[in-house]
Each structure stands twice: as C-alpha cells, then as structure tokens.
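anyone seen this seq b4? input:
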Amino acid sequence: MMKDLLHKLFSVSMALLLLLSTISWTVEKHLCMGRVMDMALFNQADDCGMEAGLALLGDTSIDNKHCCDNEAFTMQGQDTLNLDISHFDFSQQVFLISFTYSYLGLFLETTDKNIVLDSYPPPILAKDLNILHQVFLI
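predicted toks r here
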C-alpha cells in the first residue's frame, strides 16, 4: 500500500517536473510610479487607468511625464528533450544508471529466514524468577 502510494507520488511529481520544464513562462508586471499595480502570468497585465484618466482630462503632456511602465519576463521552455541514453555523456549515464538501480532497490522485498532452534530447547527453570523477585511487565 505504501509502496504504491510512493510510486504514484513519484510518477506524478516527475510528470509535473517534465511539464513545467517544457512550458514557456511569461510574467508581466504593470508598474505605476514604481509600485506594482498588476501582475499577470501568460498574458498582459491590466493597466491602472491613469493614462486613460489623463486623456479624458485633456492632458496632452502624457508623453512627457510617463509614470506607468510595463515589464515582461519570459523564460523559454525546453524544445528538445534527450529521449535516448546514448545522447548523454559517460558521467550522466553512470549517474542515471546508478540512481535507477538504487531507487529500484528500495522496493525489493526482503525475505526473513526462519531460524529453527529445535536442537536447543529453552532452559528448564527451577523457580519462576519474575514471581520470586516480583518483577512484572506492565
């Protein structure tokens, strides 16, 4: 039961790791006077509306005093994946094989050997020492 749960948990975490490493991430921030007003993941951040408000007031100096700014950070995902072990160099192959071998070794079932002591019977007690000394397990 515990082995199956750990196996499923490991499988899901590896699938998520593969998914997160192959997706391109874009984070965009809208800054107004140095303060972050909005953040967006995968799309454009909403503006604060200051430029639209100044345009309604008829302020034409918006180009001179631009206080809002948009910043975007894009992290490109991995496009090519090495699916064949022969593309790895020797040290990566050694690490991968030894890690796999040691990981799979965690789930091997051990067989306990029964030790038969038929030729050595327990000693015969003349008196019950626990009752004699009044030592009892609680």
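DSSP finds four helices and three strands in the chain. The longest helix spans residues 2-22. kinda curious what u guys think
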